[in-house]
Design a protein that fits this description.
2 domains; 9 strands; Alpha-Beta Plaits; elongated; alpha+beta; 4-stranded antiparallel sheet; about 40% strand
């Protein structure tokens, strides 16, 4: 099984996310990460999906996505040709003075930002690639994690290329 990342440019319409994710479900792909947001124009949204599967099924999924009328562009993103990032918010217990300095030292080493600090809890924010976030979460497992939340992967192609490059006017 391989891991793939698709960037999907869609018309910003009601129900489009459900229709796109249904394609993944029907093809039995497990989505590892999913982010959706408006683009530089409110007319379009960008869906970034990270999923596991095989090459043949991936190609079939891409063809099926293009059959949806709201889908404008589907691009498979190459990790080497893109800038990827994720956001993590993690809340840790802050009751043990002995562990507090270790948590703050780790946060500093990973360049995590303190978002909230109280006697009972610390909320840290970390922005980076998936491996950095995974490593930080693994390190924080030595302490009491009260809660955590991740945004999922977002990606942009390096250089001047954009999602809309080479797209004919009939789809836009």
């Amino acid at each position: 099984m391989n891991r793939y990342t698709f960037a999907i440019l869609v018309r910003n319409r009601f129900g489009v996310l459900n229709r796109v994710t249904s394609m993944f479900r029907r093809r039995r792909f497990n989505i590892a990460s999913l982010t959706v947001s408006e683009t530089e124009t409110a007319d379009y949204s960008r869906i970034t999906a990270v999923f596991d599967g095989d090459d043949g099924s991936k190609e079939q999924l891409m063809r099926q996505l293009y059959k949806l009328p709201e889908v404008v562009v589907v691009r498979e993103l190459d990790r080497e040709a893109t800038v990827n990032s994720e956001l993590l918010l993690i809340k840790l217990a802050n009751r043990d003075r002995n562990k507090r300095n270790d948590i703050l030292d780790a946060a500093s080493a990973f360049e995590a930002k303190i978002m909230e600090y109280s006697r009972d809890a610390i909320i840290l924010q970390l922005v980076g690639d998936t491996l950095l976030i995974d490593n930080f979460v693994d390190l924080m497992r030595d302490y009491e994690i009260l809660e955590s939340c991740r945004t999922g992967v977002i990606s942009l192609s390096r250089g001047m290329s954009t999602m809309r490059d080479g797209v004919g006017g009939e789809r836009m």
